[in-house]
Amino acid sequence: MHISSLFIQCVSGSPSHTVKMFPFSLLSPTNWTLLAVFLTLGILAFDSECHAKYGDVWGLFDFRQPVLIVADPEIIKTVLVKECYSVFTNRREAIGDPCLKDAITNVKDERFVAPYSLDAVTSASFSVEANSINDPDDPINVHIKKILNFKMWILLLLMMFPFAENFLKALKIEIMPSLSLKYFYNIIKRFKDEHQAEESPRQPNVKTSPLVKVFFNLDVLLRLTEHEMLSQAFIFIFAGTDTTSFTITYLLYNLATNPDALQTLQEEIDASIPRDAPISYEDVIGLQYLDQVICESMRFIPTVPRIERRCKKTSQFHGITIPEGTMVGIPVSMLHMDPRFWRSPELFRPERFNKDSGEEVNPYAYMPFGLGPRNCVGMRYAVLTMKMVIVRLLQDYSVETCKDTVIPLELSWMFQPKQPIKLQFVPRKQ
Length: 430
Ligand code: HEM
Hints:
This protein has 430 residues and is of the alpha+beta class. It has one domain: CATH 1.10.630.10. The protein has helices at residues 29-41, 43-54, 73-82, 109-116, 139-148, 152-160, 164-170, 178-199, 210-215, 218-221, 226-256, 259-272, 281-285, 288-300, 332-335, 379-396, and strands spanning 9-10, 57-62, 65-70, 307-310, 315-317, 320-322, 327-330, 397-400, 424-427. The strands form three sheets. Strands 1-2-3-7-4 form a five-stranded mixed sheet. The chain has a two-stranded antiparallel sheet with strand order 5-6. Strand 2 (57-62) and strand 3 (65-70) form a beta hairpin. The protein is globular, with a radius of gyration of 23 Å. Residues 104-105, 116, 122, 235-236, 239-240, 243-244, 247, 303-304, 307, 368-371, 374-378, 381-382 line the site of protoporphyrin IX containing FE. The site of protoporphyrin IX containing FE has 25 residues, from helix 11 and helix 16. Heme binds at residue 376.
């Protein structure tokens, strides 16, 4: 899962002109109140509290890092879209395994511009054979779990003391297990080598998907090194795994707690797709209500609650001076619940995304996949995967709450469910 701002020092900012970042004071009750809100109620309550106190722009320190949070759609547009290439191209400095520093999520400036064309190839998922659904001990499953359960305390330590990286390296302490990372690099490399062998004139009859072909020719197409290319392949697996599974889980939870929406969705699926027939791309794309349910579920509980860009040169926008090195954060989860942009935001209403509903969606207040040139490259692939899974599941099962379902859902300060989400699947009558 993507981790957003980790708060330690809270400060106030004037809504216009230079936003002042006041140093954290142990004696300041304001800071402690907000810190308590952050740790107990989580990022949404924290952002909402700050927003109520300071308006659309406020500042804080993530340990040593100044962060400016902006909730004004015009400023968001400037940061994520208009000035993306000139000022706000990059994210936070990558912390941790140097192996991943050339992945698309971390690369900077002109190195980003090249891999960005990868958008065209996101559908090329890697057909590495795995049996992780049926076999929890499948090596792929074991290694991805090790990587996703990365050590948060090391990340926090490095945010406070970036210079500790070499010290930890010497002690062989790592955020992500390098053995597991190497495991993935090796299977992707093996897959690439096999693909290139298939391409050789000695095996003219072997056919590879054109998209996979593009992906494994990135070194030639975009002049990426082999390591850079393998990193993109790895990050696609890594960035797409937890995000997609969390989003599907939230979606099922929202359907179970909103049986009317579930029924409307099942009626749409039943009317459009025969039960035992294979599902085509056109079938799922045609399901309008399913699309609305996914949009609404990702508004209601966005998997990534905050996105960020780093300001690479001191600039002035909308009357605010943003110093070089400042992180600009967009409070996605708060914007998705802001009554300025949504009618009854606390209600799960897929109808609001119906084009004929008359309710307009402000594109700068809705960004479950981020926004602008640096948004999620896996978006279309993820939506398609989710649609396929949901259709297949709901053709045969209804999803309901049970005695162990926690209602309402409680999210931790890391924006993850405090308790496991438990639902029951009831077979549908044939
Ligand atoms: C429902 C599932 C997913 C969600 C909610 C999600 C969400 C996001 C968000 C919010 C960002 C940051 C965008 C920004 O900063 O503006 C992002 C970036 C990214 N995502 Fe996803 N994502 C999902 C699935 C995937 C999948 C399946 C892949 C790969 C196939 C993927 C690959 C990436 C990559 C490579 C980036 C970095 C893009 C860049 O730096 O240019 N994501 N994602």
